[in-house]
Amino acid sequence: MLTVNHVSKTYSGKVAYRALEDVSFDVKDGEYVGIMGPSGSGKTTLLNIMSTIDSPTSGTVQLDGEIPHALNEKQLASFRAKKLGFVFQNFQLLDTLTVEENMVLPLTLDGSHSISEMQDRVWQLADKLGIREILNNRIYELSGGQIQRTAIGRALIHKPKLLLADEPTGNLDSRATTDVMELLHKMNKEEQTTILMVTHDPVVSSYCDRILFIKDGQLFNELYKGEHRESFYQNIVQVLSLMGGDNRDLSSVRLP
Ligand SMILES: Nc1ncnc2c1ncn2[C@@H]1O[C@H](COP(=O)(O)OP(=O)(O)OP(=O)(O)O)[C@@H](O)[C@H]1O
Ligand SMILES: [Mg+2]
C-alpha cells in the first residue's frame, strides 16, 4: 500500500540540514505502524513527505499504486481528498463550528456526497468515537480528548486508505490517551484503515503491529508485535533507551 524508497530530505536554508537520509520501508494494506525516535530525528518530516505536504529531496514514495509527488496540483488535491486522512497535533478544527460541521467538512468540499449519505456516515462514526452526544457542540466547548476524537472523526469521515497521525495523544491525559488509542486500534481493525502514527509514548505504540525507530534521520530499528503486548512494550522501551536522545517519556512510564 505504501513504499518509501531511498527517501532523503535536506532542508535548504542558511545552513542546509539533512533531516532524512536514505529511508526505505514498506507498509502493507491494513497495517498499523508506529514511528518513534528522539525529538528532531525526522519523524514529522517523514510524515509530511508521506502526506504530500512536503516532497523528498531524493527518493520516491509510492502510495496505493500512485507516485503522489509526480501528480500535478489538481490531481494531487483529489488524491489527498480521496485517499488520505490526517490528524496533526494542532488539530486544525474550526473553533466556532460544531463537531458535526467539522466532521463533514472534507465531504462537503469533495461535493460528491448526498446529505443523507453524509448524515449516515457522521452518525456511524460518531457512535464508534463516542461523540454522538456532542455532535451539536462547538469546538470551544469541548475537552482536549473530545477535540482529539473529533479530529480523528474528521480524518476518517471519507474512509481514507491511509491515516497519518502525528502524536495524536500528545497533549492528552492518560484517560483520554487510552480512549484515543483504543479507538485507533478499533478503526484499524473494523474499517481496515492503514495507520501510520508518530508517538513518543511506548504504551500508545504497543497497540501497533510494528514500530519503526528513527534516529538522526535514519532507520535505526524495527520491531514487530508478536504474541504479547506486554513483551512488545518491554522491547519498545529497551530500543528507546538504546537510542538515547530525549527520554522524557521513559521517566514517567505508565504500566500498560
Ligand atoms: N522547515 C524546516 N526547515 C529547516 N529545518 C527543519 C524544518 N523542519 C524541520 N527541520 C529540522 O529537521 C529536523 C527533523 O525535524 P522533525 O520535525 O522532522 O523532527 P521530529 O522527529 O518530528 O521531532 P519532534 O519529536 O520534536 O516532533 C530537526 O532538526 C528540525 O530542526
Ligand atoms: Mg515532530
From TrEMBL:
Keyword Transport recorded: yes
Database matches in InterPro entries: AAA+_ATPase, ABC_transporter-like_ATP-bd, ABC_transpr_LolD-like, MacB-like_ATP-bd, P-loop_NTPase
ABC transporter domain segment(s): 2-241
KW Coiled coil (keyword) present: no
Alphabetical keyword list: ATP-binding, Nucleotide-binding, Transport
PROSITE patterns for this protein: ABC_TRANSPORTER_2
Protein name: ABC transporter ATP-binding protein
Organism in which the protein naturally occurs: Alkalicoccobacillus gibsonii
